[in-house]
Design a protein that fits this description.
The protein is α+β, with helices and mostly antiparallel strands. It contains four helices and eight strands; from the N terminus they run E-E-E-H-E-E-E-E-E-H-H-H. The longest helix is centred in the N-terminal third of the chain and has 11 residues.
Length: 155
């Protein structure tokens, strides 16, 4: 996958991952269509970039999702699911088959198209130092006419 390239599939997955996971505050962004993790997680697993590994576990922020079971069925088995013991809104930790833990921004499904696209771009921008909550606050409070200018590497 090319650096900071949107990744989507025919299933409607809205995902953008950095080309260098593990080096920044966030490794990418995911913009689900709803707050139903049981529906959305299988779409993420099915369309997740294979070069990043297969998702085996997901730790989510309870305010972002409706209650979910401890295991969610996916195409080839189950993904173990848990929640943060504290409120860490707008973040999901994905543990992959190569034992990597990716920090992925969860973009609220009700954002506008421009806001959602900007949030995905920002979350996958190399050397971006924003945490999930401050990134979303910036995107929603300060609309940008050209998000590519705001989210340059190192911004």
């Amino acid at each position: 996958m090319a650096p900071n390239t949107p990744y989507s599939t025919s299933t409607g997955l809205r995902l953008r991952m950095t080309a260098t996971p593990g080096r920044d505050t966030l490794d990418g962004g995911w913009w689900p269509h709803s707050r139903d993790l049981v529906t959305e997680l299988p779409v993420l697993v099915a369309g997740f970039p294979p070069e990043l590994g297969r998702i085996q576990r997901a730790i989510y922020s309870p305010p972002d999702w409706e209650p979910a079971p401890r295991r969610i069925p996916v195409r080839h088995g189950f993904v173990k699911v848990g929640s943060f013991p504290r409120d860490d809104t707008h973040l999901i930790l994905l543990t992959t088959s190569d034992r990597r833990t990716l920090r992925v921004l969860v973009v609220p499904p009700d954002l506008t198209g421009d806001q959602g696209e900007e949030a995905l771009l920002a979350a996958a921008t190399p050397r971006n130092s924003h945490d999930a909550a401050s990134l979303l606050q910036t995107v929603t409070d300060q609309p940008d006419l050209n998000p590519d200018d705001r989210w340059m590497p190192g911004s």
